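Tip: read the tokens left to right.
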């Protein structure tokens, strides 16, 4: 590993001084954990394979072969850069044959990377597969106009990736004008054993590393075992070899190969041809008129749809400021065309990607599903609400993009991702000390209090859960995802909805059963989340025994027995103050009482959390025959009157409890 890093930094420094010669490998990767015995059958097969590959590589610059049978089978390929001539290709591969013995003696697998070729062999079948980035290096000089450079770079790399993936040789190269005086040259290539889809994925994975490794640099080289990406502000490939030959001209009509015709036959033929020409011309004209009319109708319809969307946004009082608007081209470049390598996660309404803007700022880009109905409603909600909210415990909206039917939101980037990735992970949860959990609980409560009472608007979040709590670098919580948020009037304390949407286990009974919405709905969700933070267990599932119940019911049973510590997260057992733990359990159970009138509001919750001297109210019974049970299993939901139009899925039992995921949502109309 140390030798690799030394080589890596050496190349990064030397890239602008004296590049490596073409016959030197810039990277060797030997599979040193598996070796063969000198004089063995495997060595004989390996030498035969390498000789065959390097001496018989066809004009396409690629060859692959397999020799022997297990356990002495050897797989190998040789690949030359797509702009390389036949003789230069053979020369490069000939050097690789000797270098393999020097750099990787006795190893059963190796990859040798050169500027002009690549040799790879192994005792394991690797054909058709790709790996992550193995190596990258960059030019030490920066570009003068980063915004323009990134736009040009993103465009040409995207174009070349598509061309390379669809070509037989899996290779493409070209250039684009960077400015009035310079051109930007780029080259992409996959080994020809990859399918078109695998090649494209490999290249986009490499391109996705550019903002991390090489942002603002004039040139870079990103290499994996199966593909490479390279660009510079100077020509580094054979432009004449890359340029495609023009298509052959069509044979002239009536060439000398056709038999001669008589004058009468020629006259009839000319008359027929004129008649045919007229018919074709009329038909073409009619078709053109119809096609043009259809196209214009489509444009007008789309224009009206865009206008309607714009009007809706304006109706929601979204101020059209330049600082909030991002271009789609810039976002594609910042995410490397929404590469999977940059994906942070995916929820019910779309995927979230990490992006690095031209000024070096990291942001989170939420790309909503391309559904003009529900998708736009979520976008409208988030922009209209979040743009007006400013609080340290709410995720900050930086901008949005509405182009080419894309619906994209840009948020501040939080490196520690979501609370559930820590809370329910056996290893990462150990870092959540009692002090950190208390800070997270109090931060969430402050964010909710701002939404309910302190902002200019009264907002019900409706989807508060662990996966919607994001953590910054100091583990401070920020409430995210306002796609389901509901705005109430300043004098309005509750509302109703026929669209029930949310996540099982977090939804208040009155909301889930009857569609009643109020700040107390969020208080219930907060109580569930607080108890999850104390226990490290997910809300949905079965806990305890005789009979098994959900998390809330289990905690309530232990509370009545006077021993809630049984369910406390084991990572907190020796570090937390018992009296404080009991108080937090008490507050959580107050919040999940079935009767919303008995739940505290968020101002009281924050007072309870911050003031030990404040007395806590008594908890009413959480599970009684004449009340709605908060259990979410198929057989434990009881209510009066009977529930209608809601079908509850059976939840699997797994080691005492099952997961509560984003996909477990409830919707009824």
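Filled-in amino acids:
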């Amino acid at each position: 590993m140390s030798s690799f890093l030394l080589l890596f930094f050496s190349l990064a420094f030397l890239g602008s001084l004296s590049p490596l010669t073409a016959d030197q490998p810039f990277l060797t990767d030997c599979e040193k954990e598996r070796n063969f015995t000198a004089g063995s059958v495997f060595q004989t097969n390996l030498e035969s394979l390498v000789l065959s590959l390097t001496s018989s590589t066809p004009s396409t610059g690629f060859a692959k072969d397999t020799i022997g049978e297990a356990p002495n089978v050897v797989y190998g390929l040789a690949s030359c850069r797509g702009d390389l001539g036949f003789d230069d290709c053979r020369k490069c591969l000939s050097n690789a044959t000797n270098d393999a013995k020097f750099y990787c003696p006795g190893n059963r697998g190796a990859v040798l990377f050169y500027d002009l070729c690549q040799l790879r062999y192994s005792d394991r079948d690797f054909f058709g597969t790709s790996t992550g980035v193995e190596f990258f290096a960059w030019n030490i000089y920066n570009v003068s106009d980063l915004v323009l450079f990134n736009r040009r770079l993103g465009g040409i790399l995207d174009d070349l990736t598509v061309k390379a993936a669809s070509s037989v040789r899996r290779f493409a190269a070209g250039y684009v004008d960077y400015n009035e005086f310079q051109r930007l040259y780029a080259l992409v290539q996959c080994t020809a054993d990859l399918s078109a889809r695998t090649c494209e994925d490999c290249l986009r994975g490499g391109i996705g590393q550019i903002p991390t490794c090489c942002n603002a640099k004039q040139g870079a080289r990103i290499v994996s075992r199966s593909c490479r990406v390279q660009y510079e502000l100077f020509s580094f490939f054979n432009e004449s070899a890359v340029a495609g030959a023009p298509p052959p001209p069509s044979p002239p009509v009536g060439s000398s190969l056709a038999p001669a015709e008589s004058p009468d036959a020629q006259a009839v033929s000319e008359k027929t041809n004129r008649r045919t020409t007229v018919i074709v011309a009329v038909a073409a004209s009619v078709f053109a008129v119809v096609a043009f009319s259809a196209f214009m109708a489509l444009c007008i319809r789309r224009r009206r749809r865009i206008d309607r969307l714009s009007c809706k946004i304006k109706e929601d009082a979204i101020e059209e400021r330049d600082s909030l608007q991002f271009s789609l081209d810039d976002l594609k470049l910042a995410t490397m065309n929404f590469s999977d390598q940059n994906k942070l996660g995916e929820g019910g309404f779309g995927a979230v990607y990490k992006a690095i803007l031209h000024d070096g700022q990291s942001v989170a880009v939420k790309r909503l599903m391309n559904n003009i109905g529900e998708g736009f409603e979520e976008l409208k909600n988030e922009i209209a609400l979040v743009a007006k909210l400013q609080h340290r415990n709410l995720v900050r909206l930086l901008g949005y993009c509405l182009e080419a039917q894309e619906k994209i939101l840009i948020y501040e980037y939080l490196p520690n991702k979501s609370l559930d990735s820590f809370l329910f992970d056996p290893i990462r949860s150990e870092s959540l000390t009692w002090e950190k959990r208390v800070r997270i609980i109090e931060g969430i409560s402050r964010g909710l209090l701002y939404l309910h009472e302190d902002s200019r608007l009264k907002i019900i979040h409706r989807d508060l859960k662990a996966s919607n709590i994001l953590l910054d670098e100091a583990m401070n919580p920020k409430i995210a995802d306002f796609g389901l948020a509901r705005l109430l009037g300043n004098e309005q304390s509750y509302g109703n909805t026929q669209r029930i949407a949310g996540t099982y286990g977090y939804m208040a009974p009155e909301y889930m059963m009857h569609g009643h919405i109020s700040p107390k709905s969020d208080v219930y969700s907060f109580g569930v989340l607080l108890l999850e933070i104390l226990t490290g267990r997910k809300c949905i599932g079965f806990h305890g025994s005789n009979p098994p119940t959900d998390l809330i019911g289990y905690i309530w049973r232990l509370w009545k027995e006077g021993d809630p510590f049984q369910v406390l997260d084991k990572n907190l057992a020796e570090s937390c103050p018992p009296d404080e733990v009991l108080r937090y359990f008490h507050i959580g159970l107050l919040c999940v009482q079935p009767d919303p009138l008995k739940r505290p509001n968020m101002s009281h919750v924050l007072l309870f959390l911050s003031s030990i001297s404040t007395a806590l109210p008594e908890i009413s019974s959480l599970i009684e025959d004449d009340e709605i049970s908060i259990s979410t299993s198929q057989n434990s939901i009881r209510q009066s009157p009977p529930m209608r139009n809601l079908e509850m899925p059976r939840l699997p039992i797994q080691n005492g409890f099952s997961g509560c995921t984003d996909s477990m949502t409830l919707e009824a109309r």
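The mean pLDDT is 77. The radius of gyration is 33 Å.
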